Amino acid sequence: MPTLPPLTAQAEHLIALGVHDLARLPAHVLRSFAAESAADEGTLLAVHPDRVPVSALAPLLRHADRPGFVVSDMTDVDRFTPCGIDLPDAPLYLVTGIDRGDHLANWSPEEALPALAEKDRTPLLLPEGIHWLLQQPAALERNHCFMTIGSRLRKPDGTLDARTPALWISSGTGRDGRERRGAPKVGWCWWRNRHTWLGFASTEGRRI
């Protein structure tokens, strides 16, 4: 899998996509942050989830020239927020050491979360997963897609919704529609279900 582009190139790509406008940030802020950040190869530039909702980011994804989309039964996608993960109090931050988690394929989210913690890794957030694919589309492959269980939906009674978000490639069946075959898709799976084609994306634990 190719490495992520340099941070300055990532900033320019986000600007070209109009993400800075969605985040209400001047382009020069992204450029300055990228230019002044000391980062190792493979570091991802992310916009804070509070700045841009997933519903606005997902259509910017591309796979096989198809635009990304959110599944029709996930109208509450923007209410999935970081669960047990602290983010920098800044509009922009860096995510280091991203791994797709292929070795955890066919594990349930319930099983994968403690396994990641044992390795001092934290699960990727759904917006971070989208940012990763915006910069490195090749990270999404058929039969090698991933969940982003750092984002969860908390219900009014304080308990967590049993759905966990994921990113994969549509097969164009059912409500997706044939015209979306091959498109990158934001969907969900159950907390205790396993899927042979979904790993668990994570970071080495630092968001700076």
Show the helix and strand layout.
Layout lengths: L6 H11 L1 H4 L4 H10 L7 E4 L6 H4 L4 E2 L2 E2 L1 E2 L10 E2 L9 E4 L13 H10 L3 E2 L2 H10 L9 E3 L3 E2 L10 E7 L14 E7 L7 E3 L1 E2 L5
Parallel strand pairs: 4-11, 8-12
Antiparallel strand pairs: 1-6, 2-3, 5-9, 7-13, 8-10, 10-11
Helix pairs in contact: 1-3
Q: Helix content range of the residues, please?
A: 10-25%
Taking pLDDT < 50 over at least 5 consecutive residues as the criterion, the unreliable ranges are none
Task: Note the main sheet.
Answer: 5 strands, mixed
Overall mean pLDDT stands at: 94
Explain what this protein looks like in three dimensions.
- The structure is a single chain.
- The chain has 208 residues and is an alpha+beta fold.
- The longest helix is centred in the N-terminal third of the chain and has 11 residues, at 7-17.
- It has a domain at 53-88 and 97-203.
- The protein has helices at residues 7-17, 19-22, 27-36, 54-57, 109-118, 126-135, and strands at residues 44-47, 62-63, 66-67, 69-70, 81-82, 92-95, 122-123, 145-147, 151-152, 163-169, 184-190, 198-200, 202-203.
- The protein is 24% helix and 20% strand.
- The two termini are 24 Å apart.
- It contains 6 helices and 13 strands.
- Strands 4-11-10-8-12 form a 5-stranded mixed β-sheet, with helices on one face. A two-stranded antiparallel ribbon has the order 1-6.
- Helix 1 (7-17) packs antiparallel against helix 3 (27-36).
TL;DR?
With 208 residues, this protein is of the alpha+beta class. Helix content is 24%, strand content 20%.
